[in-house]
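User: Mind token order:
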Amino acid sequence: CAAASLSLAAGEPIAIEGISVLGDEQRRNHVIRAVTRGSSGDRQGVVIKATRAADYDAASEDAVAKGGIGREWAAASVLDQRGTCTARFLAGDVAAGVMVFADFGADVPWLAAPLLHGSASEAEAALLAYAVSLGRLHAATVGCHEAYAACVREAYPAARAPRSVGEAWLAGAAAIGPSLLGGALPDAELAVLFQR
């Protein structure tokens, strides 16, 4: 499935070899590291993710609302379009719940290593670098809701269009003030908030 997706995207036959499993059976996705080989012999490191969700259905109206690979597909598409410093989204198969990313390599520093095995200053530097990277990621995605919704519509045409704020979160947040005053937000008012 991953090889077929990569072949389609590259316009040439792509073979996958050198497979090693990352993570364990408790993760929500199968994650493997591999090397691709094109017909010209060019090689590229990749990471392949495949959903483990038995109820995954790309044609479902809540394929994205449930989270998991559906949400990640749309997010990776937007990040790739915006040229962020994330792993490049190379190809995938929506129906099978499979995504293929360029691999930064096994030697890329892992955030947990300095936290678990480094000095206090190494841990602080790693956390600072993580915070800066996370800030850059958020800055790069400001105002991207329409692009995200377009990616959802393209990959998951039957899925409900995502809201910029989840309905459950909004309903809970909107209920706090009235509940402190001993009341409840009228349903009509909540409906107005959902439309925004």
